[in-house]
Amino acid sequence: xxAESPAAPRPARSIRQTLASIVLAFELVVVFLAALVIWGLDxxxxxxxxxxxxxxxxxxxxxxxxxxxxxxxxxxxILGWVLQVxxxxxxxxxxxxxxxGALFGxxxxxxxxxxxxxxxxRKELA
Length: 126
Hints:
elongated, single chain, mainly alpha, 4 helices, DUF4233 domain-containing protein
């Protein structure tokens, strides 16, 4: 038998972290599908090859996965904001992404504001 000390319990995730991970996870699916649509329609702009849509989508997906992993620190939230702007700007590549970017950007903003407020209230009550 080893004399291992019990692992310290992980601190509870904040509401802001939880909401941010939910938004990014749903957005991950939508961006994946959008990249496939742009590739499948051969609709890459500026005369780029169709597979460039898959590369750009893959970069965004890796960024979202990294942001989800970094949500324990402020850098994850900053990366999340950067990704929201990039997805909105992707509307210049495919106009439907303006709608996607606006919807998810609005959800991201709302989750950041409300999540921070709930976390402040919980901290005050504790």
